[in-house]
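Example 3.2
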Amino acid sequence: AESQPGGMLMIDTLIQYSSRWKQLEVTCSHSTIMRLAGVPGENCPLLESLSIKGVAIPSSANMGAEDATLLFAPRLSTLRLNNLPGNALAYLTGWYSITELFLDSDKLLCFSAQDVNTGEKSHWPLPLCG
């Protein structure tokens, strides 16, 4: 949508109504993903299901968990991430309410964890299903 004239205006209008979102499913470019991901979770009190599919994502694109404040929506329980920039699991900070998780990426996924007692960090690559 954002490649068309007024596309970003449409995205901005959509974001204005984020307090009404219960289910959101979008297929969009990196710039739109960044705009949507930056919506504060508290602005989406009804959001239960989020599905984001990235298209035409540059290989140099990246997004960290600090950019994905939308994932802190208090009722978010179903999350689908498809072809997003960077490590898809990096978006899952604050995923305490997620009960269904679907990841699809052509990049190697890496799971990271930090021991709460020692603070030691560990990283494990996850094989891609094919």
